[in-house]
Specification:
About 30% of the residues lie in helices and about 25% in strands. It is α+β, with helices and mostly antiparallel strands.
Amino acid sequence: MRIVKLSPQSLVFPSPEGALREPNGLLAMGGDLAPSRLLAAYERGIFPWFSPGEPILWWSPDPRAVMFPEECHASRSLKRFLRNNPFQITLNHDFAAVIAACAQRPPAEGTWIGPEIQQAYLQLHRQGNAHSVEVWQGDELVGGLYGVAQGALFCGESMFSRTANASKCALMAFNRHFTAYGGELVDCQVLNTHTARLGARDIPRRQFLQLLSNLQRKVLAPECWLPQVIPPQQVEPPSPAG
């Protein structure tokens, strides 16, 4: 297996099945971040991930981390927090601020969300293909996430949190909203501790690609993506003692 170099004149991607096992999922390099190429990638279960200043790299890992919204769950401590939720959660109110905040990581951690990535996804957002969830505490943006819609599947790209539980609340609120409009799956790309605690799990890439093929054909109501406030999470009260 080898890394395929993309042609600047073509939007064709190689089959994800040809991705490397080590590093897991590396499939191709080169091309550009034009909206047409990004959408062609997402339609095939491929996404860009590279450090600023380095060549564009394209990935399709196996296994693939996903979250079925009905499997999203909150810990006891998060449920207690949600009963007195201090946040207001919105959809598509400030995409630029969300992606900029996702890029602001400690220097030791590094970031792949450089200016080139930010501008590319802002273009997707303006075209109605990329969306953001914002978490507000008063007038302050304290958390959020963004990603790309593929019919009834949402490809989550990144999230951030500036205060406890903000990104968790963003994901849980989005899952409820997305499901209410017919959404069925959230792509988390690579499993991490944060998403695993909320219910994400690995599935084989082949299964993910089949789900993608089926779900991207489903059309959600346009109202799903209109800028709006997402109502707060409804949490059952604790059972009475005794």
